[in-house]
């Protein structure tokens, strides 16, 4: 579906920002956020590939229920990332850097240079955006399952 493509696209945008291990290697909880982004990205790619392969006949559950479970899992994982990433990146009590001006890497005046603080902020914003998309997807699939449209042919 379009939302799965959008979720995966946002995850593709997150991946380059988290390619700098300096952003998360000091904190196991930040490493767990990177795991969330990676797991949800892989699940998104797998779902897109399964959709292309017309997988409905292979699953022991309806495709709507499958999408509902995946959406719920992704929402729960992203809620954790949305709390932990900003907390450990921007709150001084947790070793974060609350102000861009205090980040040494942001004091360079190089063209086309994204400093570490900018990377942290980009990931936080993209996490919130992707969570909203996943929540919308969850509501959509919950509605599909609740009204029973998953049993009707042609709906997926």
TrEMBL record:
Pfam families from the UniProt entry: MARVEL
Q: Which GO terms describe its cellular component?
A: cell-cell junction; plasma membrane
Please report the stretch or stretches of sequence annotated as the MARVEL domain: 1-146
Keyword set for this entry? Answer: Membrane, Repeat, Transmembrane, Transmembrane helix
Where, by residue number, does the polypeptide cross the bilayer?
29-53, 65-88, 121-142
Q: Where in the cell is it found?
A: Membrane
Top-level taxonomic group:
Eukaryota
Q: How does it sit in the membrane?
A: Multi-pass membrane protein
The keyword DNA damage appears for this protein = no
Task: Identify its protein family.
Answer: Belongs to the MAL family.
Instruction: Specify the protein name.
Output: MARVEL domain-containing protein
